[in-house]
Each structure stands twice: as structure tokens, then as C-alpha cells.
């Protein structure tokens, strides 16, 4: 089967198109899935670079999203049948999605939303579960709350804006001016161009010094120390980014802030909530671009390149 293999850590050039044997079911709870589409997440270039070298052994098949068809099921699998359309995020540290077929435990599968194509569905599992965890499980975002989503044009950001809006929040986000209209169409009430303006000053001006109830950090850097100045008293900051640098949290203390650190685990229950939002038309995956899997190197270049001629907007998808 067609597979993208990483034999050595490095740039996009280490992603090698290879022919590998198709896996076969070996335990009664397994399911074999024909991968129709997958995606590129920052996690994939981080794995490719060797950021998680202590957790993996080379060679690696990376990839953290799958939309596809069930091909065969183990004898204990009653819920799924060949032909069912499914979507899910393969277990972090296991065999990833950059291959024509994927073997997984039946417990990881979710039914694909009826109103999405394979390409659209492949944009959802990793970020969908992550956004639900951040906004609902951790921040407990509710109607009337104010939220600032840093990195609104990214995979996480484009999804988080829509979910926040569906929950009834007033949404501030950061994004380039050229994307302002698109971000507003997703549900952003106020877009702050982070290349031109200081988001802390903008939030303080917009909220008359009160700050926002929730801040979502997809950016890292000095966000943990800077963003409390844009936070309301007793507000929450939810971050996805692993930050090794020491941070000065004095402003967090002044605000009685709560920090939540999120490292997503595959959670079918969270994806079920996202499926409902998609099927009721409240949320739609945003696709930046679709590449054939053979063109994986260009897809990885696009996500990792910080000097793009066209800004990133949503998810990069790979079709098979
Ligand atoms: N912990 C977890 O479980 C988990 C799960 C998913 C993702 N993540 C992490 O979350 C981060 C975002 O993921 P993603 O999929 O959304 O990435 P992405 O699709 O690459 O998007 C990144 C976005 O952030 C914006 N950005 C970059 N620097 C910024 C800054 N200083 N201020 C404001 N916006 C800025 C970029 O805008 P420009 O184009 O203008 O630079 C881009 O739109 C990644 O680091 C990823 O590894 C973690």
C-alpha cells in the first residue's frame, strides 16, 4: 500500500513515498480502514523534525486525522460494518494516518458527519476534539462570555471561533487584516491584526479595561505572561502550546487567573459533540488547501513556512 515513511528526522524531504504491505486484522476488536483523506497538523512537522524523538522509534508513519471507509472488522466488532464511513484521530505514538490503510481498535472510531466530504471530515478529528476540550471541558465557556482566540486563522482557530459562537460567546480573535472578512464570516465579532497591533492594548480599549473571560492560546511565546493583562478578573487562559521558557506570571496573580494546559488525547466522546455541531450546520471545517498525498512535501512546506505569499486559513488536507 501507498505509505509516507520517515526514516530520518529532518525537513519535508525526509517524507518518503514507499510501498508497504497492507496491514491485516490480528485481534478480534480491530478494524481495517481505507484512508480516503488525512491532514497536516503542526504535530506532524514536529514529529518529522524529531521534537518527540524520545517517544518514537524510526521509521515512523505520522499523521493524526483519518476520514475513510471500514474495509474489514474483527469478530468481536458489532458496531461497525464494511462500507461504514468513519473519522478519527489515530493514537499519538502509534502508526499514523499517512498510508492507504489504517488498522485501529474499534473503540477509536466515530461515524463521519453525513454532510461532509472525506476531505472536509479529515480536517476535523484532532482539532475538533481539542477545541471541545479547551472551550467546554476546561474553560466552561457559556452564553454571554467574552473570549479572545489567539491565532484565529489556523486550524484550531478557525474551528474555535465557530464553536465559541455556537455557545453564544462574544468572540475576539487575532488574524491578518487580509483575512478579516473571512474571520468575521466564521463568527468573529472583532478581529485584531497581530502584525499591526498589540492585542493586549486592543482588548483593554474594547472592553474598557475589563478584559475577556477566556483566552485561548495557540501561539505560545510570551502569551502566558502577557495575556493576563487582557483577562477579566477570575478569567481563564487555556493553552495548547508547550512552553519551555520561564514565564513571569505576576499579572495572572493580579487577575486571580486560572491556567489550563491541554495536551489532546483521542476522545471519541468529544468528537461526538463536534459531529452534532457539524450536522446541525453550526460548524463547518475550513480547508486552506488540498494536496494529493504524493505531494506531501509541498503540504508540509506550506504549514511550516512562516513567509507564505498567501496566509494560512484553516486546515491543509491530503487526499488519497
Ligand atoms: N496541545 C495539543 O494537544 C495541541 C493540539 C493541536 C494543536 N496544538 C498546537 O497548537 C498550535 C496551533 O495549531 P494549529 O493547528 O491551529 O496551527 P496552524 O494551523 O499552523 O495555525 C497557526 C496560526 O497562528 C497564527 N499565529 C502565529 N503566530 C502568531 C502570533 N504571534 N499572534 C497571533 N497569531 C499567530 C498564524 O497566523 P500568521 O499566518 O499570521 O502567522 C496561523 O494562522 C500549534 O503549535 C500546535 O502544535 C496543540
UniProtKB/TrEMBL annotation:
It is found in: Cytoplasm. SMART domains: PKS_ER. Pfam families: ADH_N, ADH_zinc_N_2. Keywords: Cytoplasm, NADP, RNA-binding. Residues 10-318 form the Enoyl reductase (ER) domain. Gene3D superfamilies: Medium-chain alcohol dehydrogenases, catalytic domain, NAD(P)-binding Rossmann-like Domain. Homotetramer. This is Zinc-binding dehydrogenase.
Amino acid at each position: 500500500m501507498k505509505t509516507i515513511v520517515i526514516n530520518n528526522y529532518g525537513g519535508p524531504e525526509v517524507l518518503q513515498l514507499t510501498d508497504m504491505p497492507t496491514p491485516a486484522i490480528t485481534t478480534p476488536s480491530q478494524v481495517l480502514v481505507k484512508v480516503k483523506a488525512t491532514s497536516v497538523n503542526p504535530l506532524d512537522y514536529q514529529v518529522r523534525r524529531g521534537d518527540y524523538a524520545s517517544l518514537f522509534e524510526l521509521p515512523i508513519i505520522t499523521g493524526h486525522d483519518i476520514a475513510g471507509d471500514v474495509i474489514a472488522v474483527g469478530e468481536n466488532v458489532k458496531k461497525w460494518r464494511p462500507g461504514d464511513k468513519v473519522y478519527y484521530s489515530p493514537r499519538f505514538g502509534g502508526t499514523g494516518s499517512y498510508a492507504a490503510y489504517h488498522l485501529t481498535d474499534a473503540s477509536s472510531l466515530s461515524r463521519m458527519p453525513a454532510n461532509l466530504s472525506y476531505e472536509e471530515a479529515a480536517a476535523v478529528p484532532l482539532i475538533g476534539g481539542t477545541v471541545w476540550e479547551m472551550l467546554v471541558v476546561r474553560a466552561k465557556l457559556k452564553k454571554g462570555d467574552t473570549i479572545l482566540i489567539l491565532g484565529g486563522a489556523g486550524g484550531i482557530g478557525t474551528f474555535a471561533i465557530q464553536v465559541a459562537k455556537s455557545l453564544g460567546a462574544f468572540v475576539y480573535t487575532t488574524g491578518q487584516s487580509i483575512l478579516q472578512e473571512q474571520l468575521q464570516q466564521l463568527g468573529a465579532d472583532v478581529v485584531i491584526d497581530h502584525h499591526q497591533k498589540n492585542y493586549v492594548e486592543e482588548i483593554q480599549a474594547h472592553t474598557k479595561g475589563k478584559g475577556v473571560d477566556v483566552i485561548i492560546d495557540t501561539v505560545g511565546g510570551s502569551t502566558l505572561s502577557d495575556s493576563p493583562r487582557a483577562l477579566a478578573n477570575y478569567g481563564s487562559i487555556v493553552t495548547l502550546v508547550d512552553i519551555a521558557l520561564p514565564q513571569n506570571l505576576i499579572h495572572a496573580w493580579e487577575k486571580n487567573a486560572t491556567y489550563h494546559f491541554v495536551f489532546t488525547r483521542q476522545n471519541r466522546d468529544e468528537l461526538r459533540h463536534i459531529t452534532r455541531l457539524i450536522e446541525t450546520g453550526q460548524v463547518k471545517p475550513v480547508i486552506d488547501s488540498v494536496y494529493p498525498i504524493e505531494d506531501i512535501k509541498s503540504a508540509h512546506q506550506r504549514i511550516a513556512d512562516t513567509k507564505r505569499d498567501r496566509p494560512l486559513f484553516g486546515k491543509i488536507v491530503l487526499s488519497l
